[in-house]
Each structure stands twice: as C-alpha cells, then as structure tokens.
Design brief:
Length: about 525
C-alpha cells in the first residue's frame, strides 16, 4: 500500500512538473506574442501611419479641389437632404443591392460605436482638450479619404454568382492597382492581406470587444450577468446576421437613425445646460491643440505631440476613414454614380466625428470633471447622485457626466446608448467579415463564417480583457496599410471620375460618364442613365 501510494505521489509530482513547465512555456510564448504585437501596433497606430493617413487625406483633398468644402451644399443636398425628397435614396430594391440610405446606415452602424463615447474620453484624458481639434482635422481630411474609397469601391465592384455586388479595397487593389504595368502580383498580395486582416479584425474589433462593452455596462448599471447579456445578444445577432445583408440593412436603417438622434438629444441637452461654458471649452480646445497653455518650450512640444497623436488616432478609430472598411457596404448600394456614393462617405465622416464626437467632447469638457488646462481629471473618483463613489476612467467618464446632470437616468441612458452603438457595430462588421471571407475562400464559406461570428458573440460577453483584444486592434490597423497604398496609386482615377461627374452634373457638359472600370458594367449602366430627378 505504501509502495502504491509512493508511486502515485511520483506520478502526481511528474504531472505537476509537466503542467508547470507547459504553463511556463505557454506563458513565455504568449509574452513573446504580446511583445511582437505591441511592436507592430506601435507602427500601425503610430506616428508614421497617422502621417500616411494625413498625407492621403491632403492628397485627395487637393486632387478633388477641396470637394468637401467647394461643393458642401451639393453633397449635403444629395445625401441627407435627399432622404426627405428623393424616394430613390430610401426605396428598397427588388434585387440584392440595398438603397443609398441603407448603405449609409449600415456603414454608420459599424463606425458610430464606442469610439464616439469611450474613444473621445480617452483622447481628452491622454492628449488634453487639444486632441479634439486634431480629431476635427483628421475628420476634415478623412472625408476625402472615405470619399475616394467609396468612389473606387463602386468603380471596381463586380457581382457574385448570387447577383450581389462585391466591392471593397481587395477588389480595387486586385483589379485597379493590379492592372497597372508590372503590378499584378503586388495587387493580388495586397488584396489578400487586406481581406485577411479584415477577417481577423471582424471577430475582435467588430464583434467580441463590442459585446464586451455591452455586457460590462449592463452589469455595472443594471446588474445583469454577463452570460445573460451574451446569450440575448447572440440570439439577436444570429437572427439578423444569418439573413444576410438585406436583413442587416433593414435593421440598421431603423436602429441607426434612432440611436444617433437619441444620443444627440442627450448631448444637446447638456450643451444647453452648460451653454455658459462654451467660450472656455472651445478656448481650451484651441489652446491645447497648439500647446499655448504650457509653461516651457519642452513641455509645449510634448503637449502638442500628445494632442496631435491622440486626437488623430481616436479620430480614425471613430470614423474608420482610411481603413477601407465601410466601402464594403457602400459598394452594395443601388447607386449608378461612383461620386454619388462617395458623397455619402463624406457625410458619414461628418456625422460621426464633426457632429457626434464634438457633442461628446463638449459634454465632457463642460462638466467640471476635467481640468481645461491640462486635460487631467479634477478628481480620481466621482460621487454619483445616488451616493455611490466610482473611480473615474475613460470607460465611465461620459456616464459620470450624464449621472452628474440626470442621476441614475443619465447613467442608464449611456448604458443603453453604448448597447445600441456596440450592437449596431457588430451588425455592420459582420458584413465586412462576410465579404472578406467571400474574397478569400469563396461564397460557400460565408455561411460558416456567419455561424462562427454569431457564436463568438457569447465569448465576447463573458471574456475579460486579454491579448485577443490587443491583437484585434492591431489587425484593424493593419487593414489601413494596403488600403492606403491602393488609394494613393489610384488617386488619379478618383480625380478623373470626380472631374467627369462635376463636368456632367454641375457644368452641364456633354461627356461620356465614368461608371465602371469594366466594359460590361459600364454598358449596363449606360442603358438606364440617371435622370435629372435622381442624379
């Protein structure tokens, strides 16, 4: 008996040693992955990449002759203005395309998310009030980057075997950049990389991290267990996503206007409550943008660097201009003109950052919780109207601002807003991932992708912060590189298409329209050209 007991002890000891060694090995491997990811993340979301983003925005602004300003009235009239007077913009189609308004709502569903709440708070806390100014700058330039992506998306899109449009950065990289002399393989490789990065990012940034935000807020505000939230969201997402783009678009065109208007009502209410702080808030934004509140030269330089870096970074995170993501849904629009869909891209960035993010920033900066000189928290904790003390962070700062004004109703309002924003983001990104999967593996694999996407919703609700989040953020940023290369190489094409549109529709010249890079699609579109009513 003693012998057998001794043997069992030896076996247990050996097993314990093996498990410990394996754990140490795994820990070492994960640490290595984390180090590599941090290095790559520092590049794709670092100063060089942000400088590239700004360069592309400036390039497209110049080549289109500052279209976002020179034709401001025109693109406003043809986008949000047309929603109320042109049925073609909102009417549902009988084929597998979606309306222009549905494409906007689905794109906004993916872009108007937690970045508009948590992202703005993070930018202010890390870069000071001046970061808001650089968010505006990035949005101004991003309007034309997003415009260019959408123009190229429509120009190079093709229909799949189901009759559904397939477009996006991978298609204009393959068929646009790849058509340049000696660039066939470069285009194919960059297109494949973009699609792969998008596929991976869709599970993280577009799914699990969003659901995690929902479950965390529901637990903190309403005491709902994470697994309950995860199960409910998984069922809801499944009912929508498995039905494909037409069902996603049908849901987002109802959710997105409601959630954006609801959130704007709340932030506008705070604006009028704190209207006496308008002068001091905007003064702090402009002073912080150029470091004028700093005392010494070295501090001035560092303050400006932080304001620029965090403002630009969170600006891109909010509107996704330059990542090449939203073009995948804009390409499914029933629109004929590439420029017409490009103008919806301009409005998308305008609404997301210039309007929604600015309202969030004012609410935060006018609350008294932030030192307007430094951007630091006045106090590390906040006492709610119910008497509970919470530790302030970028995750709950906006919630604290609303609690300050409206009590528990304010906190509940933000929790519901985050739930709607994050849920709609999941729906939008499910389409991006589906299109990436279709490009890489073929149409038959898309149903498998959708099922896996839905199942991972539950995992996102119940998992805590881990390396997966950081990896997803990196892959999201990696989408930017091949996409921007494509936009730069094809910038001349965008300029020609824009000039063609302006000549025909604004100058009244009789020139052949530029609808598509492919003769069969170009000819198909010429059979039924847009009328004066719908151009």
């Amino acid at each position: 008996m003693k012998k057998s007991t001794g043997m069992a002890g030896v076996l247990l000891g050996s097993l314990a040693w093996t498990v410990t060694a394996a754990a140490e090995e795994t820990g070492g491997f994960l640490k290595g992955v984390e180090n590599v990811n941090n290095a790559v993340n520092g590049v794709v979301w670092g100063v060089p990449a942000l400088a590239l983003l700004a360069f592309v925005g400036i390039l497209m602004t110049v080549l289109t002759k500052v279209f976002q300003v020179s034709h401001f009235g025109h693109w406003m009239k043809k986008t949000i203005g047309a929603v109320f007077r042109d049925k073609q913009v909102t009417s549902h189609t009988k084929d597998r395309s979606i309306s222009q308004f549905q494409s906007l709502c689905t794109a906004l569903a993916a872009t108007v998310g937690t970045g508009n709440i948590v992202g703005v708070s993070g930018a202010i806390l890390m870069g000071g009030p001046g970061a808001v100014f650089w968010m505006w700058v990035m949005a101004f330039l991003g309007m034309m980057t997003n415009y260019s992506e959408n123009v190229l998306g429509i120009f190079y899109r093709r229909k799949n075997s189901k009759g559904e449009w397939s477009g996006g950065a991978m298609y204009y990289l393959r068929d646009g950049l790849g058509a340049k002399k000696g660039c066939k393989w470069i285009g194919l490789v960059l297109a494949g990389l973009f699609a792969f990065f998008c596929l991976v990012a869709s599970f993280g940034i577009g799914n699990m991290t969003q659901v995690n935000s929902i479950s965390g807020n529901m637990d903190a505000v309403f005491g709902v267990p994470s697994w309950v939230t995860g199960l409910v969201i998984m069922i809801l997402v499944g009912l929508v996503v498995v039905g494909g783009l037409k069902r996603i678009a049908a849901v987002t065109e109802k959710i997105v206007p409601f959630m954006v208007i609801l959130y704007m009502v709340g932030t506008i209410a705070i604006f009028f409550i704190n209207i006496s702080h308008v002068g001091s808030v905007f003064t702090s934004i402009f002073k912080g943008a150029f470091g004028m509140q700093a005392a010494a030269g070295g501090v001035v330089g560092y303050g400006i660097k932080l304001a620029i870096e965090w403002g630009m970074k969170r600006g891109v995170f909010s509107n996704e201009a330059g990542l090449g993501s939203s073009v995948m849904v804009h390409s499914n629009s029933n629109v004929k003109e590439p420029v017409k869909q490009g103008m919806w891209g301009i409005f998308e960035v305008f609404a997301d950052t210039i309007v929604v993010c600015t309202l969030t920033a004012f609410a935060v900066l006018s609350s008294g919780l932030i030192n307007l000189e430094t951007g630091e928290l006045v106090s590390a904790t906040f006492m709610t109207q119910a008497g509970a003390e919470i530790t302030l962070s970028k995750a709950n700062l906006v919630s604290a601002v609303f609690n300050q004004q409206f009590g528990f109703i304010g906190s509940a309002f933000i929790a519901v807003s985050i739930m709607l924003f994050a849920f709609s983001t999941v729906l939008g990104w499910s389409h991006y991932g589906t299109k990436a999967c279709e490009y890489l593996l073929g149409e038959k694999w898309t149903i498998i992708y959708r099922v896996l996407f839905v199942l991972l919703v539950f995992g996102g609700a119940t998992m805590g912060d881990n390396l997966a989040w950081d990896l997803a953020d990196t892959f999201n940023g990696l989408m930017m590189i091949p996409n921007l290369i494509g936009v730069i190489v094809l910038s001349g094409t965008v300029a020609k298409i824009t000039k063609n549109y302006v000549d025909r529709h604004l100058r009244g010249l009789q020139v052949e329209p530029m609808y598509s890079a492919f003769p069969d699609v170009q000819h198909e579109e010429e059979v039924a050209p847009p009328t004066d009513e719908d151009d």
